[in-house]
Structures are given as structure tokens and as C-alpha cells.
Amino acid sequence: MAETEDLKSFQYRFESDRGHVSQPFLKLHARLKSGNIPPLPYVMKCAESPSPYLYKEKLMRSSNPVLTGRGFARIKEGTTTAPDLNTLESRPTSAPMSIDDVVIKTAGLFAVLVAVGTFAWRANSPGLALVGFLGGFVLAMVNSFSKKVRPALIVAYAAFQGLALGTISAIFEASYPGIVGQAVVATGCAFGGVLIAYRSGKIRVTPKFTRVLMGSLIGYFVFGIATLFIGFPQGGLGTLIAVGGVVLASLFIVMDLDQIEKAVAARVPQEESWRCAFGLMVTLVWLYMEVLRLISILRSND
Asked: With contact defined as beta carbons under 8 Å apart, do 198 and 168 qualify?
């Protein structure tokens, strides 16, 4: 009798976690539902079978530096353990994330950025750009390394970026009329081109691809710091470096898309879509700035 009660309890727990178990569990469940109580050793053997749920966190090892070290991306390979089905913490607490969730949240973040950017454009105050950059940097660090998803801080990041980009865009527009529209169109085209290439399978994130991009990012970051003291190169060299910056930012979109695809496949909680939207926004803002600089260099050479 005690053994039967234990199996019935096991069946109840199985019902609540069915989406995260392996094939042997499904076979065991069918036997339990039909009233065919198997021997206890058979039950224990099924319990040893690995579940796809155990590998979900391994899938979420991010290749995007913005996403690395945050939430589901903090798991290191080989450190995952089997969840205890007796605990409420191991059971799904929300609906899984979908592509639509990421699209909606990304669109919402850019709506905030554009609204605040419009205000900063009209104000045309360099002080707002400074506030935007400092606030955006601090919030980017907080959102990048926070274990918990904080939507309010992600929205605040979009607002601060709006202050910075709105002011900078107004300054560039005053020097090169029409440049902002050109930069927005070019950024959209670059994103669309990368998206098509990624969806068609022409570009894939591999370990070698990731190493090359990370090495390039480190070198570009060091160069960016150096230009604060020595200035940005002029002439052909400056144009070449600006083109390299646009290409590098565009390729990081591939890493964002790869992370989003893995997150959806791993059925991470819906709130994780905020992280993916944040990472994609960081990359697109970076790409816009690189495109803006490249166009300004090309137009100044005319």
C-alpha cells in the first residue's frame, strides 16, 4: 500500500512537470495512467534518465558580452544538476518566452528612446547628452550583471539613451543636414540584412566566430579609449576604421539573434525577454552611432 501511495504521489508530481521530462518518464506516465503499477526499481530507473530541462541552462550560455554574466547566462557548463521535483522552486513559474515577447518589448523600449530623444533634440542642451551617457552607462552595468530581471531599470536605460542620442543627433544634423535620416535608414537596412542572412543560415554563431568578434571588440574598445586622448584618425584611415566599427556592430546583431533563438528553444521564463530586448537595443544603439560617424566622415570629405 505504501509503495502504491508513493507511486501515486510521483504521478501527481509528474503531471505538473510533464513539459520538462524525458521519454522514459513519458512511458512510465502511460503505465501509471492505465493503472499498471510497475515495480519500484523500474520507477527509480526512469528517474535516473536525463531530462531536457537539465540542459536548458547549458543552452543559455550567452556569446553576447552584454548578455554574458546575467541571469540564465551565468550558468557554467558542467555545473547543472537535476532539479528536485518536490520543490516548488523547480517548477515553471511563468509562461515561456516567445519571439513576440522580445519584439514587443524591443519596440516598447525604442518608443521610449524616441520619445525622450525628441525632447532632447528640441532642448538641444549638451548637458542632457552628458546626463544621458552617464546614466546610460551606469544602468547598462546594473542591467548587465543583475541576476534578477528589472524591467523598470531597462526602461530607464532606454530613456537615458534617448537623452544622449537626441542631443548628439541634433548636433550632427546642424552640421550635416539630413544625416540623421540617412543614419536611421542605414541602421535599419543593416539590421534587416543581418536578420535575413542569419535566418537563411548564411551566418551562424560558432566558437571561432565568437572568439574573433570578442577579440575585435576588445581591440576596438582599447582604440576607442585611445582616441579620447589622441583624437580620431582622419582621411582614408579614419574612414576604414569607421567602416570596421559598422561591420563589428552589425555582426554583434547576429549574436543577439542567436541568443534570442536559444532562449526561445530553451523555454526560459517570459520575463527573460526583457534581457534579450535590452541586449538587442544596446547593439542597435551602438550600430546607429557608428553609422552616424561613418556618414559624417564621408560627407566631410566631399
From this structure: no
Statement to judge: residues 67 and 128 lie in one domain: no
At 124 the three-state DSSP class reads coil
* Domain range enclosing 69: 2-90
Q: Which residues of 43-63 are buried (b: 16+ CB within 10 A; e: fewer)?
A: beebeeeebebeebbebbbbb
Q: Which tens digits make up the pLDDT trace of 110-125?
A: 999 999 999 999 998 8
- 141, 42, 157, 51: which is closest to 108 by C-alpha? 157
Of 181, 183, 184, residue with least CA distance to 295: 183
Collapse the DSSP code of 117 into the 3-class scheme (helix H, G, I; strand E, B; otherwise coil) and give the result: helix
Do 133 and 279 lie in one domain? The reply is: yes
Per-residue pLDDT of 240-281, as tens digits, reads 888 999 999 999 999 999 999 999 999 999 899 999 999 999
Alpha-carbon dihedral sign for residues 124, 127, 130, 134:
negative
What pLDDT score does 238 carry?
A: 83
Statement to judge: residues 151 and 263 lie in one domain: yes
For the chain, strand residue ranges (E) read: none
Length of the chain: 302
Q: What's the pLDDT band for 181 if we cut at 50, 70, 90?
A: very high
With vertex at residue 112, the alpha carbon angle to CA 108 and CA 118, rounded to the nearest 5 degrees, is 140
pLDDT at 297 > cutoff 60: yes
